[in-house]
Amino acid sequence: MTATLIAKRLVFHVGGYDFMPPDVMHRRFARELRRFETTWSARASAGEPRVDPDTAAWSVASKGPNWRTETDYRLLRWDDLIAAADREPMWRRLPRGLLAFVDFVASGAFVRYLGSNWRYAGFFLYPYLLFSALAALAVAAGSVVASLSGSTAFGVLAGIVAFAGLIYGPGRWCYLPHLFDDWIFAREYVRRPDPVLEGRLDRLAEDIATAARTGDADEIVVVGHSLGAVLAVELLDRALRIDPALGRSRPVALLTVGSSILKIGFHRGATRLRDAMARVAQAPRIFWGEYQALTDVMNFYKSDPIAALGLPGRGPLVRVVRISRMLQPATYRRFRRNFFRVHCQFVSGNDLRAAYDYFMMVCGPLSVEGQVRSRDGAVGAIGPAGELLAAPPTEDLVPAPARQLARP
Question: At residue 248, what are phi and psi to the nearest 5 degrees?
Answer without folding.
Answer: -70, -40
